[in-house]
Write a structure and sequence with these properties.
The complex is a heterodimer of chains A (93) and B (164). Chain A is α+β, with helices and mostly antiparallel strands and 93 residues long. Chain A contains 1 helix and 4 strands, in the order αββββ. In chain A, β2 and β3 form a beta hairpin. Classes of the chains: A alpha+beta (93), B alpha+beta (164).
C-alpha cells in the first residue's frame, strides 16, 4: 500500500542534517549513511552518498531521475558478478 | 528440429551478439555466423550458418563463443569498455600506486569502481571526473582522487551514527 501523500516523503533526520552540512562546506565528499529507507529529495541532487549495504558503503551520486526513490534501491545487498562483454562505463562530469 | 540454437549472451543487449561479425570458439579455430530468430527470457534463439538439423545443433551444446576486442565499435568521449578498464593500475595524483581496478558496477546510480588495495579494504569510488580525473587505458592506469569521507576512519562514522 502506498504511503499517504499528506505525510510527505520519509527521510531520516540525521541524513538531512548531514546533507545540509556537506552542501554548506562545499567539499567533495561522500556522505556515509545507513538510512536505506530514506527517500531521495530534490535537495540531495548532486551530492554523493555512501549507502551501506550490510558490509560496505556504495557510492551513489544523486541525479534528478532518482528523486522519489529510496537510497536502498541503488545499493544492492547481494553480490552479482557478470562478464563484462560489450558493456561500457560512462564517466559523469 | 530446424537446427536452431539457444544462446546465453553476456552482451549489453542480447541481440547485439550477432552484430560483431562471425564468432569463434575458445581456440579460435572454428567460426560461426549467427542470425537471430527471437528471444526467450534474455537468451537468444539463433540459426548458425552450416547448422541445418537438430543433431548438428546438439553437437554444439555447451560451446562458448567469443569475439575479438577489435570487433567492438569505438566508444564515445568519456566512455570505456569494461573489459578495457578492469585490471588497470590505480594511482593517486603523485603517481603512488593505490591498487588495481577489480570491477566496474552500475547499480542504477552511474558507474562505480571497485578498487582492490593490498593493505587496505576495497575502495569504492563513483566514476566521475572529480573522483577519477585521468583514465589512460594505453598506459594501463587510472588516476583517482578519493573523496574526503572515504579516507576517514570507519569507526568515527559508526560512532557518529550511534550518537544520532
Amino acid at each position: 500500500m502506498a504511503r499517504s501523500v499528506w505525510k510527505g516523503p520519509f527521510v531520516d533526520g540525521y541524513l538531512l542534517k548531514k546533507a545540509e552540512k556537506s552542501r554548506a562546506s562545499g567539499r567533495n565528499e561522500i556522505i556515509r549513511m545507513w538510512s536505506r529507507r530514506s527517500t531521495i529529495l530534490p535537495q540531495f541532487v548532486g551530492l554523493t552518498f555512501g549507502v551501506y549495504n550490510g558490509h560496505k558503503f556504495l557510492p551513489v551520486l544523486v541525479n534528478e531521475n532518482m528523486v522519489g526513490h529510496k537510497f536502498g534501491e541503488f545499493a544492492p545487498t547481494r553480490t552479482f558478478h557478470s562478464h563484462s562483454g560489450d558493456r561500457k562505463a560512462t564517466r559523469t562530469e | 528440429m530446424r537446427g536452431e540454437v539457444r544462446i546465453k549472451c553476456f552482451t549489453e543487449r542480447p541481440e547485439a551478439i550477432a552484430g560483431y561479425g562471425p564468432l569463434t570458439d575458445e581456440e579460435g579455430t572454428r567460426s560461426f555466423t549467427l542470425r537471430i530468430r527471437g528471444q526467450v527470457r534474455g537468451q537468444v534463439i539463433a540459426r548458425i550458418d552450416g547448422i541445418a538439423d537438430r543433431d548438428a545443433a546438439e553437437a554444439l551444446r555447451g560451446l562458448r563463443l567469443y569475439t575479438t576486442r577489435t570487433a567492438l565499435p569505438r566508444t564515445k568521449r568519456n566512455e570505456w569498455y569494461l573489459t578495457d578498464l578492469e585490471g588497470l593500475r590505480v594511482e593517486d595524483r603523485d603517481g603512488q600506486v593505490i591498487g588495481r581496478l577489480r570491477a566496474v558496477h552500475d547499480f542504477g546510480a552511474g558507474a562505480v569502481l571497485e578498487i582492490e588495495r593490498e593493505t587496505a579494504p576495497v575502495l569504492w569510488l563513483p566514476f566521475t571526473k572529480q573522483a577519477v580525473p585521468v583514465v589512460d587505458v594505453a598506459a594501463g592506469r587510472i588516476v583517482v582522487e578519493p573523496p574526503a569521507e572515504n579516507a576517514a576512519d570507519d569507526q568515527r562514522n559508526a560512532d557518529e551514527r550511534i550518537r544520532e
